[in-house]
Amino acid sequence: MRTLLCASEISSLIASLAQQILSDAEIAATPPERLAVVGVRRRGELIAQRLASIMISKIGQPVALGALDITMYRDDVVGKRPITIPIGTQMNFRLDDRVVILVDDVLFTGRSVRAALDALVDFGRPRLIRLAVLIERTGREYPVAANFVGRRVDICPQDIVQVMLRPTDAEDAVYIDAHTAAGPSQATAQFPKAPGVAP
User: Fold this and answer.
1) Spatial distance between the Cα atoms of 97 and 30, rounded to a whole number of angstroms
2) Which residues pair with 68 in a beta bridge?
3) For an engineered disulfide with 130, which of 37, 144, 147, 196 has Cβ 3.0 to 4.6 Å away?
4) Taking a C-beta distance cutoff of 8 angstroms, is the pair 134, 10 a contact?
C-alpha cells in the first residue's frame, strides 16, 4: 500500500476545492442562505464539514450543512456486497430552489453519486447541484462527472483508494492499495498534482 496524500496535502486540496466552489459563477451569484453543502456519509460528510467551514469563513455568513446516507439507494445492496447498517441522513432543511454542493471522497464508477442524487430529491427540488470530490479516479460506469476535483488519479481498476479522515479514522491520509493481480501496468500509475499543491 502506498501513500497518495498526507494530512497537509489533504488540507491543501480541501482549501483548493473551497476556492473552486466559491469561484463558480452560479454559486458566487447565489445568496448564502440558498446554498447547501451536503456530504455523502461517511468520508464525504467529513470533507463537507471542512469545506463548509472554509466557505463560511470566506463569505462571512452561515451555509446549510447536511449529511446524506445513501445505503438504501445503492443498486448493489443485494448480492455479495457486505450488509451495511444505515447511519441515517441528517438534513434539517429543504432543498427546494437551493444550490447544492454534493461532496464525496472518491468518484470511481459513479454509482454512489447516482444513489446520492436519488436520495437528495427526497428533500426537495434543488435549483442546481454541483459535485465536489477529493479524489477522481478512472473507471466510470455511469455518465457522471465532478465539477470540482481535488486530485485526479489514473490507476488500475482493481486498485483501491482508501481515504482516512479524522475523527472517524486515526489520521488524515489517502492510500492506494495496489492489487498485484492487476499486472505490470499498475507500476506506471500516474498521480497528477492538483494546482497549488506542493510535492
Assistant:
1) 11
2) 40
3) 147
4) yes
Q: What are the backbone angles phi and psi of residue 8, rounded to the nearest 5°?
A: -65, -35
Cα separation, 36 vs 6, whole angstroms: 28
> What gap in Å lies between CA 107 and CA 137, rounded to an integer?
6
| Helices and strands (DSSP H and E) totals, the chain | 4, 8
Look at the chain and count its residues.
Answer: 199
pLDDT in tens, 145-194: 999 999 999 999 999 999 999 999 999 999 999 876 544 333 334 444 44
CA-CA-CA-CA torsion sign (51, 53, 55, 61):
positive
CATH for 7-76+86-153 is 3.40.50.2020
Burial, 190: exposed, middle or buried (Cβ in 10 Å; 0-12, 13-18, 19+)?
exposed
Least confident of 48-62, 70-84, 146-160: 70-84
Statement: residue 199 has pLDDT above 50: no
pLDDT of residue 173: 98
Give the SS3 label for residue 68.
strand
Peptide bond into 2 cis (omega under 30): no
